[in-house]
Specification:
Blueprint lengths: L2 E3 L8 H24 L7 H11 L4 E6 L5 E6 L4 H9 L10 E4 L7 H6 L1 E2 L7 E2 L4 E7 L4 E7 L8 H16 L3 H5 E6 L9 E2 L3 H12 L11 E4 L11 E6 L2 H9 L15 E8 L8 H18 L3 E9 L2 E8 L2 H14 L6 E5 L2
Parallel strand pairs: 3-4, 8-9
Antiparallel strand pairs: 1-2, 2-3, 5-6, 7-8, 7-10, 11-12, 12-14, 13-15, 13-16, 14-15
Helix pairs in contact: 9-10
Amino acid sequence: MVFGFGKRRPDKSFKQRVTEFWQWYPQVAERFFQTIERGQCESLAKEVGDFMDRTLPGLAWVFGPGEQGGHSFTVSGEGVVAKQLLAEYWPSRATELPHWTFYASRQPCSPEDLKAISIRLGEHESVDAEHFLIQPKVNADAQLIDIIAWHPAWESITEDDQHQILFLLLDEALGEFGTETWLGDIKVEPFTAGQGTVTLAALPDKIQQINNYYRWKKLPPLRAYSVYELKEQTDTARGDTLVGSTCISEVVSEFLHNEGKLEEDPLQGTGAEFAYLAIDSSVFPDGKQADVRGKIEDAVGGALAKRESGRTLGGAFGLRQSYIDLLFFDGSNSRQVVETALEGLQLRGKSQVLSFV
């Protein structure tokens, strides 16, 4: 595998950047495939890294195994929700190419590859997934699995290194979002193996067995929304908020608690933008606020999706206004799509499209 990270460069909309990627990759796909088949994957690092730095800054990338004996190219936000939303958009405009699979997050290893994985830090003994012991405990109320993890080689490894190795191996075993999705409390300490103990290589199967029994309905992380409320209202931007739900909770929380300001644009240099729609409360009849806002959100989200220009991310109710969180992929074109949708809803003069930054 070859890993890389993009750098920031502020020009072009994110949609334009993604279009540029899908114009480029079909031209190099067969050459890349043959190069990797020859065992020369490392030789592609600079070429791909330079292109990704220019085109999709801020996103990580990696080559890996694909479907039916092919190879894969993965673009990832490295678990950062703001960036992962961009990674999710990227393959939605993919071109189908022979021998290639495209992923928007790092995938779990195959069972065979997982058994062969080991990690060594410095001069320490290798830590392998096959002899890595996991003691799982189901937390049914939280719909998570708490684990205790230990490997015999850890006797001489620092606690920081133990955690680093553990999470690297969990990513390999469960994929980029697997740890967040399935695991709750994670402890690193020696224990006596007993009934229920599994190796890390067998952990994915154990999780599947547990889920088959409990039938938990897990939402993908980018489809999971957090509910929030403000106990005190202010005169700052969105300071009249009472309650809301969003999948960019860190962005909204910082914005509200910093009186309508973000210390740093989480999408700086990517060509994408977090924005929100502020709608006058007079639009919402008593007792029908949720229904009316839902229809507006559906109309705006549908218009953005149709033009591949953005998506909705949740929203909130306030004393003076109601809000819909937005992600724009196509700059001023995305704003125009929203403005047109608002005109169709007869909301001109009763709504504003505003930026989080």
